[in-house]
Structure formats: C-alpha cells, structure tokens
Amino acid sequence: MQKTTTPFLPIGFSWAFAFLLLLSASSCKTTEKSAVRERTDFTKNWSFALGENAGAKVANFNDTQWRKLNLPHDWSIEGKFDEKHPASYNGGALPGGTGWYRKAFTLDAKDKDKLFYIDFDGVYTNSEVWVNGQYLGKRPNGYISFRYDLTPYLKFGPEQNVVAVKVDNSQQPNSRWYSGSGIYRNVWLVKTSPVHVDQWGTFVTTPQVSEQSASVAITTQVRNARQQAGNITLRTLVYDAQGREVAKASSEKVALKTGQANALTEVKQNLTVSNPTLWSVEQPYLYRVVTLVEQNGKVVDNYETPLGIRTFNFDAQKGFTLNGKSMKINGVCNHHDLGALGAAVNVRALERQLEIMKNMGVNGIRTSHNPPTPELLDLCDKMGFIVMDESFDMWKKEKTKFDYSHAWDEWHKRDLEDFIKRDRNHPSVFIWSIGNEIPEQWAPEGTTIAKELVNIVKSLDTTRPVTVGINEPTPNNTIYKSGALDLFGFNYHHQDFEKFPKTFPGQKFIATETVSALMTRGHYDMPADSIRRWPKRWDIPFHDGNKDLTVSAYDNVSTPWGSTHEETWKLIKKHAYLSGQYIWTGFDYLGEPTPYVWPARSSYFGIVDLAGFPKDVYYMYQSEWTNKPVLHVFPHWNWQAGQTVDVKAYYNNAEEVELFLNGKSQGVRKKQGDDLHVMWRLPFQPGTLKAVSRANGKEVLTKEIKTAGGAARIVLEADRTQIVANGKDLSFVTVKILDKDGNLVPRADNLVHFRIDGKAVLAGVDNGLQTSLESFKANHRKAFNGLCLAILQAQEEAGTVKLTATSEGLEPATIILHLK
Ligand code: GAL
C-alpha cells in the first residue's frame, strides 16, 4: 500500500528541519513509526460480485469465490453493448445492475488510539457502506466524495476488519450520458490523531495580490474527536515551488472546543508572501501550504493545501482578465468517462486528455455536469486550466426517470456543501456552476432554488462567481430573474449573442456551452461549405446515404440548437463582452449518440474522438489559439477518378496557402475578413496533393497527402515508451495501417490482434468509431479509417514489455515499452 506519511516533529524544531522532514515524508512508501497522519491508497485487493448478495454486509460472509480486483473499477465498461439495456443508447447501451465490493484488512495494535476514516472519491451510484457488519451510511449521488469514520467499529492486532460496499445502479435510466457503475474513483484510508485537521478543513484565499506581495488568509478547522481539553498550537508554513519556505504563521495556546465529540475549533491566520509568482494558464505556479497541529509539545497532525496566487475579474464590457490581463476562456466541456477505460479513474488517462487539449490551445475545462474526480482538479492546477466546476444536471425536476432529482430534497444541501468545501482550494477553479439546463428555469421554483443554492455557495466561498448553464436566455427565465447569479451563463443561442448586452444590461457573460457540432473522424461529405443542421427528424442521419451513421468531419454538420465550430468562435472572438466559451465537447464520450439511431452508442460532439485521435477541426482551434505554426490540409486523397473534391486548410503565421496537385498549382488562397480556413474545389486525380503556406513570400510550412495504395503494414506509436511500474501507469499506443510506401490507408478497417509479452495488461482498445459494438476489453480491434488504439497498463514489476500487433495479410509490428 502506498502511504503518504508525516513524521513526528519535536517541539522547538527549526522550520528548515521541519521542511526537510516533510519533503522526505512525501516520497515515503511505507509507514513510519513516528507518522502522525497517513493517507493510504486503499484500492488494492478488493473482492467483487455482481448481483444482490444481501448477506455480504456481514463481516464473516464467504467471498472466496468472488472476483479479485483493484479499484478504481467500472463494471459497465466490461459489458456487452445492447440497445435493450435499460440505460439505453443515451447511457452508452451498457449494463447497469447492482454490485458488491468487499475488502479485508488488519490494523496495527499500536494504532488503537488513532482514528481511521475511509474516503471515497466517488461511487456510482446509491452506495451503502458497512464495516464489520456495522452500517455506516448511504450516498445516492454518484459523483460526490464522502467519508465515513470507521474508528468505533475497528479491531486491532491480528483480527481482520471487513469493509463492504453495495453499489446500486439498477434503476435506469438515471443519466443522460454514460455513467459507469461501481467504485470507479479512488478510495483512501486516513489515519489521524484524535485532534486533527478536519476533512477539507482548510480554506486558503488571497484577499490582496500585487506584484510586491500577496496576503494569504487561512481558516483551519481542527476536529477534537474525543473531547480532549487543552490547547493546541497551529502552525502554517507556505513553501514555493522550489520547496523554499516563503511565509509562516503560528497561533499559540488555542483552546480546543469541547462539550461534544468532534467539536470543531476554528483558527484564522494571515500571512504575506512577498514578490509572489502568479498562477496563470501559461505558468501555473503552485505554492504549498502546510498546516501543523501541535498538542502538548508534539506535532499531532499535518495537512497540505495547494495554493495558487492569482487575481481575476469578469467585466460586463471587457470580459475576463487574469492577473490584470485580458484573455478569452477557450474552454471545452467534458464528461467524466475515459473512453475505453470507462468511468474508472486513471490519472495518466486524465493527464493525456488534458495534454491533448492543451496542445490544441484549450485553457478551460467545464466539469459537465457534476463534481469531477479530485485528480482532475489537481492536474488542472498543475497544467493551467480555468475550471468551471459544476454540481448538478438537474434539481428537483427530473430529466431521466431515476435520476438524482429523487434524492434532491434530502441530499442537495449536503452534496453542494461538500462539493464546495472539497474544491475551493484549487487555484484552477474559477467559476462555480450550480446547474446545467435546469428545468426549473421555466417554473417559479427556478428563482427560489437558485437563491438557496447561491446562498449555500456564498456561505462557503465568496471568491468565485456563481453561474448556471441556462438554455433559454430570456429576461423571463426564472433562474436569471432570481438576480442571484454573478455570471450570466448561457448554453448555445449564438444567433442572440449580439443582442445580449441590450437584452441583459450590465450582465457579465460566459458561454457555458456552445457548438454541439457533429463529426466522425476521417469521414467527409461534400460540399464542405454547405452546412447541415439536423433535418426534420431526430433519428435521421445528416447526409443522405450515410447508412453507417458516420457524420462529415468538414465542420459542416451541427445540431439545430448549436452551430458549426467556426460560427460560434467567430462571434466569441469578435465581442470583448463575451468572456469565453466552453465548447460541447473536447472529447467524444460514451452515450448520447446523435443521431439517435442504433448502433450509435457514443457521442459525435468531440473535437477529438473517443480514442483520443483529433478530428480536423482540432487544427482550426490550434491555428487560432496557439502560436504553433499550423498548416492542416484535408481530406485524405483517395477518391473516385474525376470526382469533385473539396480541400480545406487551416493555417496560421502565414498570409496565404498555395495548393498543388501532382505539381500543378490549384491556386493561392488567403483568408479574408474573419475567415478561419481556405478551400479549393477540384476534380480528383490520384497522386500527390501539396500545400505550401507563405509569409512575405517565404515558405512557412508544407504538407503533402498522397493517394494511398492497399493496406500493407502496421505501425505502432506509443505516446510514452517508458512508464512507471506502479500498477496504474499507461502507455497509449496508436496503431496505424499503412500502404507499402508508408501512407495512411484512409478507410482501412483491418482487424488487429494484440499480444503482450511482459508485465503489462491490455487495459482497453478502441478506434473512435461511434457505432462499433466491439468490446473495449478485447485483445483485438478493427481499425477505423486507418487507426486504432491499444492502452497498456503497467503491472508492478520493472522490466521490458513487448506489444505485438498482427493482422491478416499485413506486415506485423512490435514496440518495446520500458517499465521502471
Ligand atoms: C446540451 C446539454 C448537454 C448535451 C448537449 C448535446 O443541451 O447541456 O448535456 O446534452 O446539449 O448537444
């Protein structure tokens, strides 16, 4: 078990010494004798069974026949696609049901005076937890993080303890997208002294920030579990990114609250950080706040909080500024699934998604439509994203039959409070969202509930604006009319953007959700410049003849409520009062296929497909949002002789692009006005298409696309060939089907088989095709439009791993990974 421990610190220690101890402790893998707080990864060696298993809550239940696994775990993603599953294709057409998890563990006899908590980052859904047969509680919300105190029911020494968790995702549909099922996020065992910093017990803000100094205000809640009388000393230290102490505060002789078990003592402290390095999306500089609780001359607890020092503002005319500089929020909405891995959280998979987004120029993430896994926010802190952190997709009025609306009355206050407390120290969180497209916006309760929720948020954090994604932005909207929102958040309605300042005078605007264009990677329907906007019926694919349910990737298909990517970006770009947007969506996700025609089972909205392969419009944004030189030319060059083909190019850092077909110029094109691409229409001839971008008459970039021959060989490309042998790390291996000359075969759909030699497992396979009913957990996958993906997961042994990919009639390929 990997543990984070903090050693005992004697009274009178030097601050520098304390820091050295803390540093060495943070890399510790085992418990130290002197440890005061331990947070142990509690994800290994669980037993799992599907079904009712009511007796499984009892400690001595016989689970020897159950499957052994490590968490995080999502049982739905292991299932078979079937349109008859009650989740329907909106939920990803995968099975739900009820599942049980059990884990046995022992505790050291010397720890019997300690407290033990179990922390769940999220369980989908309706979880109930027992320890040693004792019922601890339930949590209907599948996205919320929660804790139980195990202490009163534990055994110490050789006797075993057993935690049992029932997960009930049987009542479906309960979600408008794929939810996953199970303990799909991490679980932690937290050991503390009886006097310790409460769960999410610090709140760190920066009331005043200038180039010269930042004031840091820290409120700490200390829990007194056993009504101990007496005083504590609370010390707070701030370290910069290099580990240097930059500020400290000490509150002596603070009387502990007593009178009831678990009484909380609040301590407020103020510090100053001189010459602070500010947190920004380009340089997400992080400080670390370390809280030490001392009792009777001994350090009894330590606790860490991230700190990013930044100022920001939303302005009704000028939009968003970060650290005094104007910038657009160029964000994307994402759901929580990780494609072939399902909902099961994996930090590297999250990081890869964010890397792909960052590389496109994205600087904002909306956690649509629910609390994210905590690791996502840790990554956004480190990588520099402006997060719109969202709590609910519905309030009291249901959207799907068995959704959270049924738990609303009993749970919403607790869930919202816990969500804010958990996330309010993340510098990447800039906006709280109390809901998405809430049906109450058309009813009087829209006003009352909005006011109630905003009050809850403000009681815990006044440093960030609160918004809602409203999908009918009119002055009569009851949520808007509540007057409770700081930011006017609206979904879609790009046709109305220019009217907004008049219709909603004085409001600060953020486009909480935009676009909802549709695309299948590598599929093109012409003409490229005619926009299809969802004809007549909801179940009709968009271009005639697309019986295979593919949708054109020219950025020429959108939902009727949405727009093409270019349409919305042109408007957001033009108007300073629009602070930015969160595009629906960065990645394709499981569920909500549009068109709603079986076997479509995942969404078409992503700028990047489910496997992580960019669609063409990715490069439109890259050309606009980054300074990287871009020249992206598409489509592929395998068409019928004589067919008229539209060739589009996204480019930047140049004035013009010239296109050549087999050496013959097809003309020079320049973007005019607010154009975001250039286009040529030409009769197809096999051969070489070459584009050259130029600035001041000088070549900037060239791109060539050749007509591919038949599929001849496989090529494997790993995103990382060296990974950590920690049982979790991943290598994403792209599989390309090439002709004999090395050209990607644009419509290749060869079935590829995978074999692994060495200590890694195949965690998932995918190809990004929205209608594929192949299993994500198989050891083979058909390519789609020339590509597929194999995700390798390290086991816990260092060494080399060989992945071999074979396919009938093709030259096979191997790749070696190094596990360290
Ligand atoms: C929005 C909604 C999203 C998603 C999207 C699809 O209205 O907020 O959750 O359903 O439509 O276009």
TrEMBL record:
Residues 202-310 form the Glycoside hydrolase family 2 immunoglobulin-like beta-sandwich domain. Keywords: Glycosidase, Hydrolase, Signal. The keyword Iron-sulfur does not apply. Gene3D superfamilies: Galactose-binding domain-like, Glycosidases, Immunoglobulins. Residues 714-815 form the Glycoside hydrolase family domain. Residues 96-192 form the Glycosyl hydrolases family 2 sugar binding domain. One of its GO terms (biological process) is carbohydrate metabolic process. Residues 318-585 form the Glycoside hydrolase family 2 catalytic domain. InterPro entries: Beta-gal/glucu_dom_sf, DUF4982, Galactose-bd-like_sf, GalB-like, GH, GH2_Domain-Containing, Glyco_hydro2_dom5, Glyco_hydro_2. It comes from the Bacteria. It holds the Pfam family DUF4982. One of its GO terms (molecular function) is hydrolase activity, hydrolyzing O-glycosyl compounds. Residues 642-700 form the DUF4982 domain. Belongs to the glycosyl hydrolase 2 family. This is Beta-galactosidase GalB. It comes from Rufibacter glacialis. The gene is galB.
